[in-house]
Specification:
7 helices; single chain
Length: 293
C-alpha cells in the first residue's frame, strides 16, 4: 500500500518534516520534526510543530510514532513537544547510544544523563519493522553521515534523512564523530538498490540555484544526476571527493544547541536550581579540519 505523505518545510533550517498516514481519519507517523530556535535570543518556539498538529487535526489523524532519522546537528527536534501533544512514541536507531556517550563527555554531562538511548521510547535495529494503521514500515541502517542514521521505508516511500540530498546538491557530510565517507558510499548503494519506483523523501534541501525547494526525488534521478555519486561513481572516487569537500564546509549554525537537545529525544536540558534551563558551549572544541568535534 502506498502511504500518503505530507511535507512541511522550515526555511530557517532547510528541514523537511513529514506526516505519513494511511487515510484520512486513520493512523500516522511524524518524521524529523523541528523545534524552532532563535540562537541570538536563546528562545524556543513551536510554530513549525504547530503546523503539523493543525494538519493532524484537519485530517483526523492519530499519531503512533515520531521517527527520527538520526541525531540532527542542524536543527533542534520537536519530538518531545509533539509527544506531549499527541501521546506518540519517539523512535531512533540503536546507534544513538554511541553518540550519547560521545556528546555527554563533550558537554560535561554528569552520571545522571543515561547513555543507553532510554530517553527514546524505542530503538530500531537494521531491518526492524513497525506498524501504524494499515501501513507497515521498516528501518534500514544507512550510516556514514552519523553512526545512528536510519532510512525509514514505508510502502513505496523511503525517508532518507541526510544520506542523500537533491541531485544538484549531492550527499551528506561525513565529518561528524563516527561519520565515514566509505560507509556513506555503501549506504547510498544500499538505498539505490531499492525498487526503481521507490519515492525518496529528503530531510533537507539546499537549492544551489533559484529553483523551488524539493522534498522528493527518485532513484533514477539520483543515479543519473547526483553531482557526488552517479551510477558510475566508484567508491574510491567518492571517498576522495567527500573527504576533501568536508574540509571546506562551514560549521552548522545550530550544531552545539542541536546536539544537546537531540540526544535527549527533543527534551530541553533540565532546569538548574533557579528554574532556568541552560545550553552549554564547550570552548575551542569545534574544528574546521577533518572532523567537526
Amino acid at each position: 500500500m502506498a502511504p500518503n505523505v505530507e511535507s512541511f518545510y522550515d526555511p530557517s533550517t532547510s528541514t523537511f518534516t513529514y506526516v505519513v498516514f494511511d487515510r484520512d481519519g486513520g493512523r500516522a507517523v511524524i518524521i524529523d520534526p523541528v523545534l524552532d530556535f532563535d540562537p541570538i535570543g536563546a528562545r524556543t518556539s513551536t510554530p513549525s510543530a504547530d503546523r503539523v498538529l493543525a494538519f493532524l487535526t484537519e485530517r483526523g489523524l492519530t499519531v503512533d510514532w515520531i521517527l527520527e532519522t538520526h541525531v540532527h546537528a542542524d536543527h533542534l527536534s520537536g519530538a518531545a513537544y509533539l509527544k506531549e501533544k499527541t501521546g506518540a512514541k519517539v523512535v531512533i536507531g540503536l546507534g544513538v547510544a554511541r553518540l550519547q556517550e560521545r556528546f555527554a563527555a563533550l558537554f560535561g554531562l554528569d552520571a545522571s544523563f543515561p547513555t543507553d538511548g532510554s530517553q527514546f521510547d524505542r530503538l530500531l535495529d537494521d531491518d526492524e519493522a513497525f506498524e501504524f494503521g494499515s501501513l507497515r514500515g521498516y528501518a534500514m541502517a544507512t550510516p556514514g553521515h552519523t553512526e545512528d542514521s536510519l532510512t525509514y521505508v514505508i510502502g513505496d516511500a523511503a525517508f532518507v534523512g541526510d544520506t542523500l540530498f537533491a541531485p544538484d546538491t549531492g550527499t551528506a557530510r561525513t565529518d561528524f564523530p563516527g561519520g565515514d565517507a566509505r560507509t556513506l558510499y555503501r549506504s547510498i548503494q544500499k538505498l539505490l538498490s531499492l525498487p526503481e519506483g521507490t519515492r525518496l523523501f529528503l530531510c533537507h534541501d539546499y537549492p544551489a540555484t533559484d529553483r523551488a525547494v524539493c522534498a522528493e526525488t527518485s532513484i533514477a534521478d539520483q543515479q543519473a544526476n547526483n553531482i557526488h555519486v552517479k551510477r558510475e561513481t566508484t567508491e574510491e572516487g567518492f571517498v576522495k571527493m567527500r573527504t576533501e569537500r568536508d574540509t571546506t564546509l562551514a560549521v552548522p549554525r545550530l550544531l552545539l544547541p542541536s546536539l544537546q537537545v537531540n540526544i535527549r529525544a527533543g527534551n530541553l536540558p533540565p532546569p538548574d536550581g533557579n528554574g532556568i534551563r541552560y545550553l552549554r558551549l564547550p570552548l575551542d572544541q569545534v574544528n574546521t579540519g577533518r572532523t567537526l568535534l
